[in-house]
């Protein structure tokens, strides 16, 4: 009787696991399904300079089409030119995609460095540059040791998914927030503000924005703590 119960329990667990795997949607699949409709409407919005409407369309694409899917595993290169896979990162991942021509606000990198120093034991902070090794190595000097800087050189890359989906579909810079299993919890665009803001004000704006994503998606049980520190630096 005990053996029979164990057999039934094992069969149930196997079937349940198989069912979960069958229902798993990859990011590439979700994007292929929802991107064409989004692009048609977004191009129209940008043509009419309806930037608020374009942002609403992007948010809807993320909320109703891409959130909940699992990022495909793919490889990129470390600064020592050795390959590393996305799934090699076991913690929740805060991933930002960049290119050398992306102009960040003056406070973004300092804010990210502060947050990475504070939460690196719980989150993997990853910066992915779509650039050459030389350009990426130079840009990496701005980030602290708690942030992993990687790159994909499109001239050498052979993974069509990485080039056609992750980079060219959503634009740059784009932030992906993923849990430890690489399920996408949110996708965000970078912070933008007028150049009149001072450095400290820019840092505070970026800190608040980045922290909001971290606190609401990546910190787990810490987010429910009543002792959570204030968001703003000042």
From TrEMBL:
Keyword Signal attached: yes
One example GO MF annotation: antioxidant activity
InterPro entries in the cross-refs: AhpC/TSA (IPR000866), Thioredoxin-like_sf (IPR036249), Thioredoxin_domain (IPR013766), Thioredoxin_ResA/DsbE_sf (IPR050553)
Any one biological process term the GO annotation gives: cytochrome complex assembly
Subcellular location: Cell envelope
Signal sequence, renumbered to the chain: 1-19
Domain Thioredoxin per the UniProt entry, residue ranges: 65-208
Name recorded for this polypeptide: TlpA family protein disulfide reductase
Domain of life: Bacteria
Cellular component per GO, a single term: cell envelope
Keywords, alphabetical: Cytochrome c-type biogenesis, Disulfide bond, Redox-active center, Signal
Species: Antarcticibacterium arcticum
Pfam families registered for this protein in UniProt: AhpC-TSA (PF00578)
PROSITE patterns: THIOREDOXIN_2
